[in-house]
Amino acid sequence: MKPATALACLMVLAGCHSRSDPGPFRLGAATIEPVQSNPWRALLYRKPVLLTFDDGPQDLVADRRILAALSRHHARALWLVTCKRLDPAMDPQASEHRVALEEIVARGHLIGNHGYSHLDLRRLEPGAMAHEIVGCSDLIAQLTGRRPRYFRPPFGAHSPAVDRMVEADGMQLLLWSGNSYDSLLADFKRHPRAYVDYVRLHPGMDAALTATPGDVLLFHDYPNTALAIDGFMTRLERRDFQFVLPDHGDAAGNQAR
Length: 257
Ligand SMILES: [Zn+2]
What we know:
257 residues; TIM Barrel; 10 helices; 10 strands; binds zinc ion
């Protein structure tokens, strides 16, 4: 992500923890509410954080491990899907990935749009850009019954033309302010334990230790992430963070506009 973009993202989030009352905080245009229903938790927790998982569904085993960890911590997350994974014409394992999508939705997580084919959208003609942005929303709506409210451009790369199309499709651009570095080395996927060791040996790269209230944390649905996510969440909880979703009035947070 460009420094200017990161700064803009952080500036949007900066107001999240400056309030003195325990009310909801703001994430861009969205109001954030605590996930858990007990209203007293809002008084106890002042450090909300949004977990996001990009690029999937791409690994049913990893997805189920992540879902199990999220359930153990009573947390919900935003899954920004790459639609080609769900398209039988583009991915021979699309039917398996659709099962993962169903399970993610069934557990109350929020689905966002991460583009159809994971391309740098800035280079595309309007027709191809529409396929990547609107076409992916169409497929998500077809499979889940709801159009997504959040769009994360692949690589965080966007332009005024991308921004206009995302807004016209009723979505909010959502980047990230904290990085798990789970995609830093390709070897992490093949040797998931190496990623866990890397994070332990580099506390400055540990998203759980560097997180600040209101952060949007970037993860992927990789095997190494699936191995590490429980530890991340435990460390965040030790620091009194609470896992939240953007709230639009319904349990899944993605009520039709
Ligand atoms: Zn991505």
